[in-house]
Multidrug transporter
Amino acid sequence: MRNKSRLFIALCFLLACCTVQAQTSTTNSTPTTAKKMKFLIHITCGPENATKAALGFLVAKTAIDEGHSVTLFLAGDAVTLLKDAELDKVVGLGTGKLREHYEAIAKGGGRFYLSGMSSKARGLADADIAGKPAEFAMPTVLVRLATDSDRMFTY
């Protein structure tokens, strides 16, 4: 009877140790082992909605900070966000300064595409994006970027 009690206690102890180890190993997974993804951030709101525009840039910056690759496609009024005057002026309520987010995105390898039609309609020229990781693009590029991305966010 004593041997059965000892065996039962030993089995309970072993089972408890295995359960703790299994829980520990699943909760200790580090973000560095997570799959790096390709994000497309599509922004259509411009300086008139500073909070939402800055939020799109903040999400892009955050994804880059976490090691993901990020592409932004700006369309509609959002194309004006890459003008230096707007980069310096736009500050979102709780979403930060557009210039700071832009600098982090550019430094982290992020790429910007601006709708060519939206840019033309709003008077943007090559000079407005000179020296920036940006280019004008047609809707076919947006479709290609969307199909090539793992995740897409729209602001």
Q: What stands out?
A: The CA atoms of residues 104 and 132 lie 12 Å apart. The domain at 37-154 is CATH 3.40.1260.10 (Hypothetical Protein Ychn; Chain: A,). The chain is about 50% helix and 20% strand. The first strand starts at residue 38 and ends at 43.
